[in-house]
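Supplementary Methods, section 5.1.

A reviewer requested that the exact input to the structure prediction be made available. We therefore reproduce it here, unchanged from the version used in the analyses.
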Amino acid sequence: MVPTVGFNLLYCLVVLGHDRRQLVSFGITAHPTAEWLARQITEAFPWDERPRYLIRDRAGIYGDVFTIRLRTMGIRDRPIAARSPWQNGYVERVIGSIRRECLDHIIVTGEQQLRRIMQSYVDYYNRARTHLALRKDAPSGRRVERHGVIRSVPLLGGLHHRYARI
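The structure derived from this sequence is encoded token-by-token as follows.
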């Protein structure tokens, strides 16, 4: 949940691939429903690239429409135990990173602005942000730059920087 400057709440769905901890997709809405969630999963995974399992929490918003869509796509639903966020630690870590590294420093005015901010963060997270579990590589992978002058490239409006050789 992300509060806006007008004290409205926006809801953000984050889909994370566990293999390289890559942010696959995100969706933003002011009024989440099971139908909206089902549509987000369909958009996140093309039929030929769907995962075998989907690990999720036990929020009440996941309804019959959502579980039927998963079954139709051939994805096995694996909800975690109630009140057990540690069972889905990778996603909990990503949500905390999004809050600490981005949303805690920005005042959100509306849905379109949050969508732009999240798209910028997803690009930063997948292409530039290093992970110790990936041996200090980014989820999308980065090539090693050995020659040139090191320059700072501001990301997310200067909130973060990527250092590259030019």
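DSSP finds four helices and seven strands in the chain. These observations are discussed further in the main text.
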